[in-house]
Design goal:
The chain is an alpha+beta fold and 97 residues long. It has helices at residues 18-35, 60-70, and strands at 2-9, 39-46, 50-57, 76-79. The N and C termini lie far apart (40 Å). The mean pLDDT is 93.
Length: 97
Amino acid sequence: MKKFVVERILPGASNLTPGELEEIARESIEIIQRMGRPYHWIQSFITDDKIYCIHIAEGAEVVREHSRLGNFPIHTIAEVKAVMDPQTAGSFQLELL
């Protein structure tokens, strides 16, 4: 299984209501269940005019299938090759100003 970052351009994404976000989330989950293959939607980040989604799947074509079935826009998809966070720095301590 591979991890992917999906960029969806959706003007006004930040104006989606909690009810609309719930509806989109439910539809995504229903599609994943219908697909009948290993697939995990991890999380989505909503910005002003875009939604960035983290998905785990066997390949990019499976992520594209999920998007097609849900009629979700997909503008870019990139496989995650490594993850970096504060723990990547090892014992280096972040100093607060």
